[in-house]
Amino acid sequence: MQIGSITLRNSVALAPMSGVTDLPFRRLAMRYGAGMVVSEMVASHELAIGHPETVMRAEGKGIWPHVVQLAGREPEWMERGAELAQEAGADIIDINMGCPAKKVTGGYSGSALMKDPERACSLIEATVKASSVPVTVKMRLGWDHDSLNAPDLAREAESLGAQLITVHGRTRQQFYKGQADWSAIRAVRNAISIPLIANGDLNDCAEVEDMLSKSSADGVMVGRGAYGRPWLPGHVAHYLATGERLAEPYDEELLALVLEHYAAILAYHSSAPVNYAVRAARKHLDWYMTHQCPEPDESLKELRRQILTSSDADKVRKGLDLFFQQSPKRQAA
Prior knowledge:
This protein has 14 helices and ten strands. The relative contact order is 0.11. The mean pLDDT is about 95. It is an alpha/beta fold. Strands 3-4-5-6-7-8-9-10 form an eight-stranded parallel β-barrel, surrounded by six helices. It has a two-stranded antiparallel sheet with strand order 1-2.
């Protein structure tokens, strides 16, 4: 897949997910073969004023291409955010027009911009103006089913210089309920000539061909299906290229990955307040343990509870080792 002057190694991307796709998670996804990974949403105004956590979100050492997703509502802040993201090494700037969270749409950012196409276009124009790297846009089908304006907004985005569009196959009002409508994304494909990525509900390699066929997209983006499975985008890419399903990590292989990821999270957040990193890791550990053992017995449930409530990193590591030792062995799919 080509995004401006950048050629991706494949057409499968990891979606930007707040609280999930921090730098350690993105590095793992890239190592397992994702064609592109996108940062957590970076608020342009907070980046411009140097908010420490926001600045961290824009980091991408060891990632190529380094994609920073910017969110905002004011063109001047998007312009400044794009400049700072490039100074931080961004190879691509993505504009968030798809986040459905109330704290984002309540500030008239994210998917709320689909109710205000004129402002949305002003943000795209300002970001493209400030960028010497490709600019992409991620959106939903529309605010609700009475305003499915993704094709129109995507067409305008292309005319303003955007070089790729990603569409999540739901409206904002659906949040993450129901099923993503891959067929509805096809209308965007018919409206633009730049590359299109389809997003929403891709949880297994076997689903990707149907997703591509229904959407007519050029590539796919894996979101929540990658919770506890940073290898999934790479596995999907391998399946598309070869028709082969790679075995997912379990048992000793998965434990080694979990401990590596845990150590990376602790190191990444080493400058944060005490115990912040331990708490930030908990969701990932929970997903990994659920992947290893979806139906734990009472003793494993109690062990998992202890792991997920402990603030002692060494106790967490020892608990993880014990959890994997005691979990029923399972064969990779």
